[in-house]
Design a protein that fits this description.
With 239 residues, this protein is α/β, with parallel strands linked by helices. The chain folds into two domains: 116 residues, no CATH class; 107 residues, Rossmann fold (3-Layer(aba) Sandwich), CATH 3.40.50. The protein is built from 13 helices and eight strands. The strands form two sheets. A four-stranded parallel sheet has the order 2-1-3-4, sandwiched between helices. Strands 6-5-7-8 form a four-stranded parallel sheet, sandwiched between helices. It is globular and about 55 Å long.
Length: 239
Amino acid sequence: MKVSLFITCLCDIFSTNVGKNTVEILERVGCEVDFPETQTCCGQPAFNSGYVKESKEAMKQMMRAFKDSEYVVGPSGSCVGMLREYPEVFKGDLEWEEEAQSLAAKSYEITQFLVDVLGITEVGSTFKGRVTYHPSCHMTRILGVKDAPRKLLESIKGVELIPLPVSEDCCGFGGTFAVKNAAISEQMVLEKSEHVTETGADYLIGGDMGCLLNIGGRMAREGKNVQVMHITEILNYQK
């Protein structure tokens, strides 16, 4: 099966290891992975800020970049969720509507692809520890990915998965929300940090880098000894 990696901006700039882990996981389960170098931002920051016209240029470039891909897989529920929104954005556009539908239909977040497309819930990780999982808003509410990450984590021998209290609450990042509403965002991430502490877990796992950067930054400033990891890091752990 041929898969094109959608790296996403945050992974490309801040967490390149997440992209590496994504590729290695996909290759380990038998996928042939390529990387279209003409890909760019999915357009979400501009779109959510009201710059619809400007965001469409980035979206068009994404459609060009992945036009010939069989599947498009990314390590971010939020960004893949934006790709799934393209058909609505380009609805009625005779030139781009069909391309938008095509890209949306073949785009998946990494855990969603593993579980729902490949039917895989165990990837050979050797990780051990007490972990809790933060389900990001965009991943669960826009993309609809809820069970896949937990199924994969639960399959890892040696992992004790501890429920996160009030897990459905937003961490306060929300892309540009954290910038436009900094005071509110700060209180939201403070609550999230407190809930993580309640679990007694040693590791916080998530599927969106924005959330992990936000929560991890808050806990680091509080001096909390909880390691923040993207889910691909734990799924690809081999020691």
